[in-house]
Automatic annotation (TrEMBL):
SUPFAM superfamilies: DsrEFH-like (SSF75169). Residues 1-20 form the signal peptide. PANTHER family: BLR3518 PROTEIN. This is Uncharacterized protein. InterPro entries: DsrEFH-like, Sulphur_relay_DsrE/F-like. Keywords: Signal. It comes from the Eukaryota. Pfam families: DsrE. It comes from Dictyostelium discoideum (Social amoeba).
């Protein structure tokens, strides 16, 4: 019952986000107190970012997945994104097949090109079996090592 309610909340949130995206003209210039603001414009052909999850808090996991979803739908970033979701510690819960409330969003993100990464230290510490995880989860030697190396290679990171 709880899983059904959580799944319904996630789906309704996605519907709300998709229905409300065309309300505001985001190309307009706003001037307040003689300070002009313009939204950032893409200057690179590719932007690489990793979202980081190290919690099993439903709200933070849900927000992170929605943030990734929104990034893929930002008109300035379409076909310019490479995104990975790095999970370690209790963040592994996002990938568990026993948490079906995240499965529809993970499928949507995977179809958009998102790559899912899980720390091998976490796999060992929690005695996880890859067959119990969402298909396509990629183990890496350590979540922290993955973050450090990618930051060194110019990737940006978002950690809610």
């Amino acid at each position: 019952m709880k899983s059904t309610i959580l799944l319904l909340i996630l789906i309704l949130g996605l519907i709300y986000v998709s229905k409300s995206t065309s309300i505001i003209n985001t190309n307009s210039i706003n001037v307040v107190n003689d300070v002009k603001f313009e939204p950032a414009k893409p200057i690179h052909s590719l932007y690489k970012t990793m979202y980081i999850l190290d919690t099993n808090d439903f709200g933070l996991i849900n927000s992170t997945l929605i943030n990734i979803y929104n990034a893929y739908r930002d008109p300035r970033l379409i076909n310019r994104l490479e995104i990975i979701l790095v999970a370690f510690g209790k963040g592994y819960n996002v990938y568990l097949n026993s948490n079906p409330e995240f499965q529809p969003m993970l499928t949507s993100l995977q179809n958009s090109g998102c790559v899912f990464v899980l720390c091998n230290n976490t796999i060992n510490a929690y005695h996880l079996n890859l067959n119990d995880l969402f298909p396509g989860v990629n183990p890496v030697p350590s979540g922290n090592g993955e973050i450090i190396l990618r930051l060194g290679d110019g990737w940006t990171s978002i950690h809610p």
